[in-house]
Specification:
By secondary structure, the protein is mainly α. Helices cover 31% and strands 0% of the residues.
């Protein structure tokens, strides 16, 4: 259950700076990718992108536009 975002991002039970890091489900390839992101300096950018997606593993990315038409004039 999510609550309102806190100063550092979304807060929910079991998540936060004081929560333990659970890497039990991390594959060897995932571990290597994580270490490489830390090494090459891209981890911070990745973490910020994950925060913007509320840490969702499969975020829906919407693109497009909208047009407002005046019903009276058709403009």
């Amino acid at each position: 259950m999510q609550s309102e975002p806190a100063a550092g991002g979304w807060e929910f039970p079991g998540f936060g700076e004081s929560a333990p890091l659970d890497l039990d489900g991390l594959t060897m390839a995932g571990e290597a990718a994580l270490v490489e992101r830390i090494r090459d300096g891209s981890f911070t950018n990745w973490a910020q992108a994950a925060e913007r997606a509320s840490y969702c593993a499969h975020p829906v990315r919407l693109t497009g536009s909208s047009t407002t038409i005046d019903a009276g004039t058709g403009e």
